[in-house]
Amino acid sequence: MIVINMKKVAALVSCSLVTMAANAAVLPATQTDSLWFKTSAQLVSDKTLQTNKTQAKNVILFVGDGMGVSTLTAARIYQGQQIQGNDGGEENFLSFEQFPYTALVKTYNTNQQTPDSAGTMTAMATGVKSKAGVLSVSDTSLRGNCLSSKGNELITLVDLANAKGLSTGVVSTARITHATPAATYAATPERGWEADSNLPAEAITNECKDIAYQLVMRDEADALSVALGGGRRNFIPDTVTDGENKSGRRSDGVDLTQAWTENFSNAAYVWDKEGFDAIDASTTDHLLGLFNSSHMEYEADRLDDTAGEPSLTEMTTKSIEILNKNEQGYLLIVESGRIDHAHHAGNAHRALVDTVEFSNAVKAAFENTNPDETLIMVTADHSHVFTIAGYPERGNPILGLVHNVGGDLAIADDGKPYTTLGYTNGPGAVIGQRDDLSSVDTEQKSFMQQSLVPLNSETHAGEDISLHATGPGAHLAQGVIEQNVIFHIINQAQSLGGTKY
Questions:
Q1: Residue 38 contacts by C-beta under 8 Å, 6 or more apart in sequence?
Q2: Average pLDDT, stretch 259-283?
Q3: Mean of the pLDDT values across residues 443-465?
Q4: Where are the beta strands (DSSP E) in 267-385?
Q5: Backbone torsions φ then ψ of 351, nearest 5 degrees
Q6: What is d(CA 494, CA 485) in angstroms, rounded to the nearest whole number?
Q7: Which residues are identified as catalytic?
Q8: Cβ contacts of residue 146 below 8 Å, gap of 6+?
Q9: What whole-number distance in Å separates Cα of residue 359 and Cα of residue 64?
Q10: Which of 67, 79, 187, 345 has the most CB atoms less than 10 A away?
Q11: CA–CA distance, 40 with 259 (Å, rounded to integer)
Q12: CA 133 distance to own-chain centroid
């Protein structure tokens, strides 16, 4: 019979573990000299030096409409490849991806697993979730029913900031009356009520006001200091033709652009790039800029606009210059609205270019503010059914066909090549045989990626999106959170008084 001396075994095991630990402490030079090793070690070391501040004088909330995680990944690679050529790009970071705090955000509406922008921005702007299609009214309201929304209007971050004496601004590349920007300043049971001509008889009878009217016809103390975007048609009468030969859509005969300059002190209205560039921020306290009849141009097409449009970066910078004059602080909400529209069109190129410009705008905001007193948060309202697939080699053009490691063109089971980027559904759906993309320029800006399910418009997706934050209060952006928590982080950081405990 074999007798085991357990004390001796324990001693041998203990000695072995000590030896292993000692050996592990001395890493080989091939490991420690690696740039991957050094940069990641430095990142962790830097995080130990972070200090958290809780009170913010200013808050800037950036919303990339439709900017899901796959969009971020593809855009960072796209931007990196523009800088470095088609030799890498994966190691690039968008400006806000290097902010110290990050969270995942659940986006569902109270009545939909996959959300729309009205309900998601209502959550961020008011602190409560609501239905799809309604703007800053509770989910007890019926969509499209004015009477049901009466008494169910919600107070937004803009309302709270104005009440505290802060300056407020809203910027978007979409119509400024579109769902995401509108949820910050308007309360209505129907996101489509952008002009009075959109109001049904029931809404008129029960005295609901259209979104454009709600933006302009406010007391000066409650008014936005800056409102920049598209949607000019919703502010001018249908008897008026604008500077780009487009007709207005207001049936009440009211010119809200004129009302803006009459209602507020030191106010200006501009509609083109020349007028925007001429604005003196030091003497302008209220700026309304409407740069297109409908949505502003995609960034990829902006320079082709008839009258010229400012970029998102330029609008963000000008807004900060105007808002920063208020010694008490400001709240600025900036939306890149057309990322979403490009995805709906199954057009990855324009979506990625707009995402890169969005990153540029965030970078400009960070560089033009004091990080000790300004909370900057970057998020999306929802994602899209946008995918990154195949096994392309490092540096393969993100908008191109898949090439395997070694450079060989990847071929699908149908004998044809395929792109790295694609959509689960949308207008690029393949019905029958797939087109052979061998001789197609998949990187040109109007190329429509192939998709699976045929739909006229590609849809939103329901997975979580990301939140990135820096500045006072940024440490509260952690974990997996409901979308309405974003309101409460801002509310607490600026002490807006909208939270009762």
A1: 32
A2: 98
A3: 98
A4: 267-270, 286-290, 330-336, 374-380, 383-384
A5: -65, -40
A6: 14
A7: 117
A8: 189, 202, 203, 205, 206, 207, 208
A9: 9
A10: 67
A11: 55
A12: 18
What is the pairing mode between strands 374-380 and 58-64? Answer: parallel
Q: Which residues contact 53 (CB under 8 A, 6 or more apart)?
A: 372, 471, 472, 473
SS (H, E, C) 197-235: HHCCHHHHHCCCCCHHHHHHCCCHHHCCCEEEEECHHHC
Residue entry with tokens 């270019």: 353
For residue 479, how many other CB atoms are within 10 A of its CB? 9
φ, ψ of residue 103 to 5 degrees: the values are: -140, 165
Cα separation, 183 vs 179, whole angstroms:
6
Whole-angstrom CA distances from 451 to 291, 396, 431 are 33, 21, 10
Q: How far is CA 500 from CA 56, 468, 491, in A?
A: 19, 26, 11
pLDDT, one tens digit per residue, over 78-117 is: 999 998 655 689 999 999 999 999 999 999 999 999 999 9
Tokens encoding 5: 């001396």
Contact 69, 465 (CB under 8 A): yes
Report how far apart, in Å, the C-alpha atoms of 41 and of each of 19, 31, 434 are: 24, 12, 47
User: Which amino acid is it at 44?
Assistant: V
Nearest to 472 by CA among 383, 368, 348, 374: 374
Cβ-proximal residues to 160 (8 Å cutoff; 6+ apart), any chain: 491, 496, 497, 498
**In this structure, what are the phi and psi dihedrals at residue 220, rounded to the nearest 5 degrees?**
-55, -35
The label of the residue with tokens 């703007």 reads 135
CA distance 383 to 183: 18
Structural contact between residues 239 and 248, judged by C-beta atoms closer than 8 angstroms: yes
Chain segment 118-175, per-residue pLDDT in tens: 999 999 999 999 999 999 999 999 999 999 999 999 999 999 999 999 999 999 999 9
What is the tens place of the pLDDT at every residue in 293-340?
Answer: 999 999 999 999 999 999 999 999 999 999 999 999 999 999 999 999
